[in-house]
Specification:
Two copies of one chain form a homodimer. Chain A has helices at 3-18, 25-32, 36-39, 46-64, 75-83, 87-103, 105-117, 122-149, 158-178, 183-200, 205-214. Chain A is mainly α and 215 residues long. Chain A is elongated. Chain A binds a DNA duplex (18 and 18 nucleotides) through residues 3, 24-26, 34-38, 40-42, 45-46.
Chain lengths: 215, 215
DNA sequence: GTCTATAAGAAGATAGAC
DNA sequence: GTCTATCTTCTTATAGAC
């Protein structure tokens, strides 16, 4: 990784831990292994470093194309998986998703930085909400809509059903961000949550088998 | 309100909007209507102002004695209300609760400040989680437990049921904190959420009437 | 591109008059 | 208790040698 990019990486780490104002350009430089004035050969000033991070974040978010996407492929592929999924598989998917969000280094640091800096800049608040509220709800909602059409889930309000699935995941995520030692407990709760969700929204095993045969 | 207390009030407002590091003692002083050096007759330094705010917050949180408490009275009174409550009343209660959290000036500013500063100081992260995750879940869980015992709600996992009730409220709250213009939409979603919750966890009207007669 | 030296300007805090 | 003047320290950023 070249110096220019390493600066962004180290800056993101520091910003996510202390917030923009509490990080000094000398701190960033030290972690990169150079002196502060050398930074200015790569970026015009401190704000430019921050802006570059946000720009890269937006690029990555776009690439993800929907925060709660399961396999990174297109939506139709995900939808097919969902239609014939068993409870255990749904739990595994939920777990992987949650743990990816929680552990992926970039995602985690971005999320923490956005949390700290969101009230400084409306754009950051918007980015946060898009990434962790609106996009997951709309993507999951679309998948669940297909599952309802396939008869795997039953409800007359897909939007609320999606909220019931995702809000607990979101809440557990904010808890673990603040206190990583609670992760083990959160995973257990997540399991129980998905099982209960599955029970409430009536996925009948027969319907799933029927869908498998059709395939 | 005396000067000493006005300093805390104005400082809380500024901290909740910009974060500790971006607020200058001169800003606080200006809002109080004095000059910066005069502040030092009331508080030893900037950090002492912050600490005093946290201390007052802890005092207020203790007084609340459970974040999601409905009427501020004892739990048994709340439980009695819940046992004979109609769907409409449950929605009204949920709404009032949500809007209180969202609009109450002190609560709102504290929450925003904790959100911004939580990664600087573990104690703040703990305070945030206690106030907005653990306490609401444990208090609501206790009430719901009584309701299940009374036959108004049905589940074999009260903890998860409580999470299903509260997590959407929590998520809507964090959305509205970041973008107040979404409040109207959030209230609608909240309504639909509680109705769905009510349907899923099977409150039978007959059982409620029976409970009313017993009284 | 990296360094040392240093300028320029904040921002926190104190001294001492009133 | 509040003020003006001032000190001190910290931090960003630049100048200019290598």
């Amino acid at each position: 990784m070249d110096t220019k990019h390493r600066i962004l990486d180290e800056a993101l780490t520091l910003f996510s831990e202390k917030g923009y104002a509490n990080v000094y350009v000398a701190d960033i430089a030290a972690r990169v292994g150079i002196k502060a004035p050398s930074l200015y050969k790569h970026y015009r000033n401190k704000q430019a470093i921050f802006d570059a991070i946000i720009e890269e974040m937006n690029k990555r978010f776009l690439e993800q194309a929907g925060a709660l996407q399961i396999n990174g492929a297109d939506a139709k592929a995900d939808a097919d998986i969902y239609k014939t999924i068993s409870e255990e598989q749904l739990i595994t998917l939920g777990n992987n998703l949650f743990l990816y969000f929680l552990h992926d280094d970039y995602t985690r640091r971005f999320r923490k930085m956005l949390t700290i800096e969101q009230f400084h800049d409306k754009k950051l608040a918007d980015a946060y909400m898009k990434q962790y509220a609106d996009d997951p709800l709309s993507y999951q909602g679309m998948l669940f809509g297909l599952m309802v059409a396939a008869g795997v889930l039953q409800t007359d309000n897909v939007e609320i059903m999606t909220l019931h699935f995702y809000a607990p995941i979101y809440m557990l995520l904010t808890i673990c961000d603040r206190d990583p030692s609670r992760e083990k407990d959160a995973v257990k709760t997540l399991d129980a949550h998905i099982k209960q969700f599955n029970k409430l929204y009536g996925r009948s095993e027969e319907q799933i088998k029927k869908n498998r045969k059709k395939k």
